[in-house]
Design brief:
Length: 117
């Protein structure tokens, strides 16, 4: 049995980048900082997130830079050829299936976000 499941909780690094397609599909890209605790400091690991459909719309409407979220999804590797150097490139991306909006109402009010959805 194969398994490809990723669970992450962290803070959003950028406001959502949302694209609407003529087909009606919606795609949203975010970055997520997840602290990796070490003996000396907490250093963030950065993850690229990709959300589609209703999940992408929720992120577009309610997620902003600094918001704490939890995600569940799967790891995929995007591959492409660099236009300038023709070199093969790749980047890991988390394809999000579930999005949980976390944080307190105080966090949302400080960020200027609505307290109720």
């Amino acid at each position: 049995m194969d398994l490809n499941v990723v669970h992450l909780v962290g803070r959003v690094g950028i406001d959502p980048d949302v694209k609407y397609f003529e087909s009606g599909a919606v795609k949203c890209r975010l970055t997520l900082a997840v602290d990796r605790r070490t003996r000396r400091t907490d250093q963030p690991d950065w993850f690229n997130l990709e959300l589609w459909g209703k999940t992408a719309e929720i992120a577009a409407n309610y997620v902003r830079k600094g918001k704490q979220i939890g995600v569940t999804g799967s790891l995929k590797i995007d591959q492409w050829q660099d236009r300038m150097t023709q070199a093969e490139r790749s980047s890991p991306v988390i394809r999000v299936d579930r999005l949980d909006l976390l944080g307190s109402k105080r966090d949302e009010e400080a960020a200027g976000m609505p307290s109720e959805f």
